[in-house]
Amino acid sequence: MLDINFIRQHPEKVSLMLEQRQQGEDIAKLNQLLDFDKERRELIKQSDDLKALRNKVSKDIAVIKRSGQGSADDLIQQMKEVADTIAGLDEQLKQLAVDIEEILLSLPNKLHDDVPVGASADENVVWKEKMDFQHDLDFKLSNHLDLGRKLGILDFERGAKITGAGFPLYKGKGARLERALINFMLDVQTGQNGYTEVMPPLFVNQDSLRGTGQWPKFADQVYYMNEDNLYAIPTAEVPVTNMHRNEILDAGELPLCYAASTPCFRREAGSYGKDTRGFLRVHQFNKVELVRYSEPEHSYEALEQILANAESILHALEIPYRVLLLCSGDISANATKCYDIEVWAPAEEQFLEASSCSNFEDYQARRASIRYRPKDGSKPAFVHTLNGSGLATSRLMVALLENYQTPEGTIRVPEALQPYTGFSLID
RNA sequence: GGAGGAUUAGCAUAAUUGGUAAUGCAGCAGUCUUGAAAACUGCCGGCUUUACGGCCUUGGGGGUUCGAGUCCCUCAUCCUCCGCCA
């Protein structure tokens, strides 16, 4: 969330940001917030003054009682009334704090100056294209659904029977290929790119969702287990960024770089009917997630590094892709700046999002209270958090199958993966 | 699932029948020193205030009270034991 002090001092910057994010209607909420904040500060002053009086008189009462001389009854009677007044003020303050918190949690992050202003995804900027990987595709192409079915490696029908639509079942060489991809990506990120591997819980509590920003805004996108009041993770970002919730880190520990492979669960409510075939949109998929905790002054270098780390996978697998710099109207509410990596699926004839690399600055750190001491003995300051997929396997699998298919309907395995699969051809 | 115990600042330890959080270590700054150590002084949870000061803070939430680390309720986590279990 944003710093209430920043909002109070620069309300015009916040409303400009809301307009650029196509959320101009939220400016009313902003004004409401400022009113609440003003009222709250006035009430705090009143309440604090009365508390100071009460503390002082309570000490006097203690002195009288201890000495055994004189009666404190009058003072106690007065303080009863003061206590009632305080209780009334604090009741109002409590409600105001709730109202303020609700608005604060719902306001999106600042935007970085690099972010192009635009109304929708159409105005995202193509930042980079890397299409020059050579695949001989001069024949009638099959899409990943047909390839998966013919080769017996993907079975969406049975996945649907077991659970429901959007829960894929991998079989034989398909399952092995998926496992190879995950292991390969983890090895690259932990070996060459310097990340520490973590294997986090797959269910999280509500505090964790709030910490990373999925709660309250995107609560309807997360699977919820009512009996135990837990949520299935929509991305490893949630458990891994919450590892250090309510902690004060030493400056020497930063940057912290974590890589985690987990399944991700998403309800995708409201998106039925669009690109739902096969892997294009699923409720469960696997992803290697990269998470960094950075000192504020280095977080934009860290963002470029995460992007490069994610790209390194596609270079090794020789899969064509492009990088988008998201515009103000398309970037997620939590991020100040975000790159999307889209892989090219030649049979679908479209780019598919396989990674999103974002800087959140102190937006999540403030929600989750993740701080560090810039120097020994100095005041704690919020860290910057970042993450990027490196990468999501579902869309990557589509691009891999479609780019590596042969005229015979078989799939070649990229050289980098062969040590992991143990075979070089899926037939 | 059941029984008992525990939770105080980065760490470790105190706090009369309820009287308003004490101390040590570590850390930071300074004095001293060629430099360092030692010693000494100050700082050493959060918010607020130009400042003086004020308020809040004993795992979270609630209650009793003029006043709660202390009494009551509730939740969480950890430890010990019993039961169940891959």
TrEMBL record:
Summary of the function given for this chain in its UniProt record: Catalyzes the attachment of serine to tRNA(Ser). Is also able to aminoacylate tRNA(Sec) with serine, to form the misacylated tRNA L-seryl-tRNA(Sec), which will be further converted into selenocysteinyl-tRNA(Sec).
Question: What does the UniProt entry say about where the protein is found?
Answer: Cytoplasm
Q: Where does L-serine bind?
A: T235, A236, E237, E289, S389
* Lineage top rank: taxon: Bacteria
Q: Give the transmembrane ranges.
A: none
Any coiled-coil ranges, and where? Answer: 36-99
Q: Which residues form the Aminoacyl-transfer RNA synthetases class-II family profile domain?
A: 143-414
Catalysed transformations (reactions): tRNA(Sec) + L-serine + ATP = L-seryl-tRNA(Sec) + AMP + diphosphate + H(+); tRNA(Ser) + L-serine + ATP = L-seryl-tRNA(Ser) + AMP + diphosphate + H(+)
Which Pfam families does this UniProt record tie to the protein?
A: Seryl_tRNA_N, tRNA-synt_2b
Q: Which family does it belong to?
A: Belongs to the class-II aminoacyl-tRNA synthetase family. Type-1 seryl-tRNA synthetase subfamily.
Q: What is known of its domains?
A: Consists of two distinct domains, a catalytic core and a N-terminal extension that is involved in tRNA binding.
Q: What is this protein called?
A: Serine--tRNA ligase
- Stored SUPFAM superfamilies: Class II aaRS and biotin synthetases, tRNA-binding arm
- Provide the binding site for ATP: R266, R267, E268, V282, E353, A354, S355, S356
Chief subcellular location equals cytoplasm
